Amino acid sequence: MRLIQCHRTCIGKCTCDQQKLFEIHKKELLDLKALKLKLKVEFEEMQSQFQSFFNDLGSQVQEMSANALEYHRVVEENRKLYNMVQDLKGNIRVYCRIRPSFRASAKNIMDSVGENGSLLILDPSKTVKDGRKHFQFNEVFGPTASQDEVFKYTQPLIRSVMDGYNVCIFAYGQTGSGKTHTMWSFGWNI
């Protein structure tokens, strides 16, 4: 009988321990269910935010794509109009750049660089009528003209090259007349 009593005590103690363990597991299960519910709510909020961000991103990409297409259309139209203006100015343009005289007594003396590309040269060794020569160019650059001034007139042609049009710029003149200086721009001051 004592043995039965001992078994009952052990069983009661085990039942009590199991009951405590059951209560601990039950509490942990409730905590896990609450955590699961909390994580589910947070996940749904994040999913909603992600969907909203994704929709905003999609609309911004569409807007940016439309803006890029419009930009390229405007750039192409601008390029065509720009080159149309260059064509209207004339396909062949002649500029004259007068080199400063190196000698104190030059054979030909420049009399006048006029507006709109006119140039008048006086040759003192000839008569008044034959000694005056009048030339007309698109533009005349005097002896004091800088490389910047020359570049200002050739820059539109250079831009046309960048747009894919054919352009030829060449310098013509006798030896020592300043062709290389005009085309090369020593000192890179443009």
Describe the structure.
The chain is 60% helix and 11% strand. The strands form two sheets. It has a three-stranded antiparallel sheet. Strands 1-5 form a two-stranded parallel sheet. It folds into two domains: 44 residues; 90 residues, Kinesin (3-Layer(aba) Sandwich). The protein is mainly α. 2% of the residues are buried.
Instruction: Note the beta-strand portion.
Output: 5-15%
Low-confidence segments:
none
CATH topology of the largest domain: Kinesin
Chain oligomer state: single chain
Topology:
Layout lengths: L1 H88 L5 E3 L11 E5 L4 E5 L5 H4 E5 L2 E3 L5 H16 L16 H6 L6
Parallel strand pairs: 1-5
Antiparallel strand pairs: 2-3, 3-4
Main traits of this protein?
single chain; two-stranded parallel ribbon; 3-stranded antiparallel sheet; Kinesin; 2 domains; 5 strands; nucleotide-binding; 190 residues; 4 helices; mainly alpha; rod-shaped
Quick rundown:
With 190 residues, the protein is mainly alpha-helical. The chain starts with a helix and ends in a 6-residue tail after the last helix. A hairpin with a 4-residue loop joins strand 2 (109-113) and strand 3.
